[in-house]
Fold:
Amino acid sequence: MNAAFAPNEPPLDPPVLSIRDLRVEFPTRRGVLTAIRGVSLTIRRGEILGVVGESGAGKSLTGAAVIGLLEPPGRIAGGEIHVSGKRIDSLPRRQLMALRGKTIGAIFQDPLTSLNPLLTVGDQLVETIRCHLPLSRTEAARRAIDLLNEVGIPSPELRVGQYPHQFSGGMRQRVVIALALAAEPELVVADEPTTALDVSIQAQITGLLKRICRERGTAIMLVTHDMGVIAETADRVAVMYAGRIVEIGPVEDLIKRPQHPYTRGLIGSIPSLAARHERLAQIDGAMPRLNSMPAGCAFNPRCEIADARCRSDLPKLLPSGRGSVACWKLALAEAVEAA
Amino acid sequence: MLAIIVKRIGNAALVMLVVAFIAFMIFQFLGDPVQLMLNAQASQEERVALRLRLGLDQPVVMQFFSFVIRAVQGDFGISFRNQREVMSLIAERFPATFELVMVSTVLALAIGVPLGVFAAINPKNPAARIARMISMVGVSVPAFVIGIVLILVFSVQLGWLPAFGRGEVVQFGTWSTGLLTPSGRLALIMPATSLALFQISFIMRLVTAEMLEVLRTDYVKFARARGLPDRIVHFRHALRNCMMPVVTMTGMLIGDLIAFALVTETVFQWPGMGLLFVQAVMFIDIPVMAAYLMIVSVIFITLNTIVDFIYLAVDPRLRQTGTAGGANVR
Structure:
């Protein structure tokens, strides 16, 4: 507490989440597959960091590693994860469990399957609240109603006694969010929270996440493959490719001036109404498999401007503009664009 | 909710009527009852008198009608073999079978469910592996083999437990129980164990398989992600969700055992319904067979109806006839 008044305090609060050089491995019979190869990122209080990438890029795994719910045999093989200044990746199972829900909340992809069908929404809220906060049954029930109210569920007094199947998809995702917020976590990891929902409901849910972030100061890690959701919701974006971050920066910079060839490909492949008669741009090829990673930059086989260095040396994530990019060709790429 | 219950009971009654018809047809067409009941020297007058007494001179529909009326009152006629009321024969035998089956089912649930949960939660634990291996044996070895081995070891070799019979019983009206006397309880141990071994193994394997399935679901992962302790995740969330198949199978197992415990009953000379049925088949005792068919059906239908009601109690989704609370389900 006193540290806040220290004379040489940094201008910003320490980040809620800070990941340094995270590596996640899957030992298999044919050898160890490295799914996340050195990811570093930070999220501050009240900030939404979007993590975007195609399937298998490692974005969900990064989220799972933070919650401590990697599916075995997956394991954290290196790096550090700090939440509110406390290192959590090396904690024993019991202590990590105490953090789950309490310090780190999680929102999953499919609201239809995230809730236990046999328990009322209120039961699930109350058990979660009482597991983290020293409240009596009635106090917890009151808090459950408040939470439902906060996430925008109409007539929460009635809804609290209902079962998940009595809720629509969007309402269920609101319940899931209420559950994630039950113990007022500082960080929420939302893994594809809108993917299973209609577009109109998506906007409501992203709006809700933004509001929670603003009102509660919760840091949110928003994992998605949907650039549209990122553009609407996130403050900063990390673009992942083959287990690494290739570009990270403020959302408006990244969308208006993408730097990495992969990010440019991603942004270029978003359909726009203006260019409706053109063929949609696409990135040729597919992401390399974990057991056949190319040498150098993982994107080089699909990159139009790759050269010899891209095929031999791994580019580092270096500051560029207001963000950071991992590309050898950056200077050259800008020259090409200017020409 | 009430509508569902009424509908289920209506269904049960309908099924019973169909079964009654089959039982009646057996009675009607499986040989001539008069022929079977009287010996070859009986005179024509005796035959006609019996025919009249059994109501066999009336039209088939009337006969079926009176058969149902009498069946509902528990009157299944007179056993050909020992000239006694079929119902009183069954009433004598039923408690023995029922007691045996219930004790072994309670054993099976009390041991099988926790073992199954344990094996699912700790798949690599050596004790769980051994339990799974034994359960493999338990589902494959027939009950009578186990019964014979038990008799050989505990009665013949060690002389600890009685090899046959029910021991002393206490009468409560028409119901007799061996649970209240030491010798009755001792006599129950081996038959119940040999019946329960299959059930324990079966239920354990079922619970393990279901638990492994449920533990992979999103809501269990989400429960973990909310930081709920293992105890709550495993029992409140996971186990409850795999109770449906367990309830179904337990219901069927109970019915199955009551109806077909005859092998075990034969091995242990247990004075239950199985033994009665074997004797009825050997003597072509049609009234007993027809009554047996009816009673077994009643038991199955009752159990299935109870299982349905347990479903309703466990799963809120089934209680729903429409969508309440203005929710729009996608």
